[in-house]
Amino acid sequence: MKLSLLQTHGLKILLTIIKSGKETLTASEISKIEGLKTGYVGKILFMLRKAGIVSTIRGKTGGYFLADDKKNITLYDVLTALSPNKNEIELCPNIKEGENCTHSIDCAIRPVFYEAHKFFKHLASNITLEEMANREKDIMSKVKEIKNHYFKEKV
């Protein structure tokens, strides 16, 4: 699976907001920190605000902040909010029920992608922004824990 630049930048923006230690950050401040154009940051923040992930305060001391506690927002919430296809984050366009492709009768790819998709959704739904704001070593430990629990249940 490959995340879009929009999704990757959106995650970085949210982690910047969390790690800043400030009450709010403006799009301009975020763009300087992340090295992105202010308009592009504004577009991402608009999408995140529309999804209820960030809120904004107007005025001289205004800016963007998380709409909920960072422990309540999952990686999956963010990826879905920034997905071009709002229905689902997909690994294969033909795993949806009722979709046909040239391999629809005997597809060796679909079951693999379907299971990979289910695992990714499970993984992303169980990792919060709070955990992502931690060090890489800590998040790797969390990923291993989720993986071990997921595959233990499947056996």
Question: What report would you give on this structure?
Answer:
With 155 residues, this protein is mainly α. The chain has one domain (5-154): Arc Repressor Mutant, subunit A (Orthogonal Bundle), CATH 1.10.10.10. Helices cover 53% and strands 5% of the residues. It is built from seven helices and two strands, in the order H-H-H-E-E-H-H-H-H. It has helices at 5-19, 27-34, 38-50, 75-81, 110-125, 129-132, 136-154; strands at residues 54-57, 63-66. Strands 1-2 form a two-stranded antiparallel ribbon. The radius of gyration is 18 Å and the shape is globular. The mean pLDDT is 86.
Shape: globular
Helical stretch tally:
7
Number of domains: 1
Q: The CATH topology is what?
A: Arc Repressor Mutant, subunit A
The first-level CATH class name: Mainly Alpha
Distance between the termini: 24 Å
> Roughly what fraction of the amino acids lie in strands?
5-15%
What ranges have pLDDT less than 50 throughout 5 or more consecutive residues?
A: none
Counting helices, strands and paired strands, the structural category is mainly alpha
CATH architecture group name: Orthogonal Bundle
Beta-strand segment tally? 2
Question: H/E order of the elements?
Answer: HHHEEHHHH
Main sheet: strands, sense, barrel: 2 strands, antiparallel
| Fraction in helix | 40-55%
